[in-house]
Design a protein that fits this description.
The protein is mostly helical and about 300 residues long. The protein is about 75% helix and about 5% strand. It starts with a strand and ends with a helix.
């Protein structure tokens, strides 16, 4: 399909992150390090949860799914960006851009839903501990995970075709490091106001509503914790809740900035910085904040290391 002098299916050019810095080599090394740590730490989390029977609980099952989503999420964006920098190329095909757009929406959406649903696990564990085995049974855990993946997939299937059907005739240069919807829409020569409204509504459903549910859940949790008589139990519960709220605030806050705040309030460089935060840094921070500082996980890691050393 032709629009003026432009083919609708022509390749795009990703201007990337490195063109915005005076030290591209340093930034490349930093992003590569973050990527390796993210893949390694999330993989270790999944393996530990699988092999250690003490971690066969609903909370760690959900955390293993979060780690899987983080691995897939960061792998959708960072390898392409790093390879392009090494090969001194910036081109991405229309099909490649469509696939990347779909995958980042699916994995990012699934993670947004999962983080929201995980607050239910913490709420039940602290506010209804006696009913926890029933309310967080294996069937319920599987339903939570299925709902998160389904929600992310619906998000990808709905928004990707509607984004990519616009004629991009203004330019083929995307001022971003991956095919994110707001950056793509700036290239369209058609009115995107209706799409913007649909995107805004989707973001309200995916970000503000889950964040409100999480906030309400943790308010109830903190009230329950405050009434606890045992100081150690209170400290442990607050630590668990705090780590979860840090992850949630970072992830949802960055998402709201990009998709809910009007474009006139942020520049392309600010968009790239915020997107780098929730697509590159958050997958690394999740296992570090959530799990690897946990006594049970540290114990499982030491046990696994001792087993490996004894076999060696």
């Amino acid at each position: 399909m032709e629009w003026g002098n432009y083919s609708m299916y022509a390749d795009f050019v990703l201007l990337g992150l490195f063109s915005s810095t005076r030290f591209p080599g340093l930034l490349f090394a930093l992003i590569l390090l973050v990527f390796v740590i993210s893949i390694a730490s999330n993989t270790v989390m999944i393996i530990l949860i699988y092999i250690d029977s003490r971690l066969h609980t609903p909370m760690y099952f959900l955390l293993s799914q979060l780690s899987l989503m983080d691995i897939l999420y960061i792998s959708t964006i960072v390898p392409k960006m790093l390879v392009d920098q090494v090969m001194s190329q910036k081109v991405i095909s229309f099909a490649g851009c469509t696939a990347q757009h779909f995958l980042y929406l699916t994995f990012g959406g699934a993670e947004a839903f999962l983080l929201g649903l995980m607050s239910y696990d913490r709420y039940v564990a602290i506010c209804n501990p006696l009913r926890y085995p029933v309310l967080m049974s294996r069937k319920v855990c599987l339903l939570i995970v299925a709902a998160a993946w389904l929600g992310g997939s619906i998000d990808g299937f709905l928004l990707t075709p509607s984004t990519m059907q616009f004629p991009f005739c203004t330019s083929r240069e995307i001022n971003h490091f991956f095919c994110e919807a707001p950056a793509l829409l700036k290239l369209s020569c058609m009115d995107t106001s209706t799409y913007d409204i649909v995107m805004y509504v989707c973001c309200i459903l995916m970000l503000l509503i889950p964040f409100s549910v999480i906030s309400a859940s943790y308010t109830r949790i903190l009230i329950t914790v405050y009434r606890m008589s045992e100081a150690e139990g209170r400290r442990k519960a607050v630590a668990t809740c705090f780590s979860h709220m840090v992850v949630v605030s970072l992830y949802y806050g960055a998402g709201m900035y990009t998709y809910v705040l009007p474009p006139s309030y942020h520049t392309p460089d600010q968009d790239k910085a915020v997107s780098a935060f929730y697509t590159i840094l958050t997958p690394m921070l999740n296992p570090l904040i959530y799990s690897l500082r946990n006594k049970d996980v540290i114990g499982a890691l030491r046990k696994a290391l001792r087993r490996c050393l004894s076999l060696g």
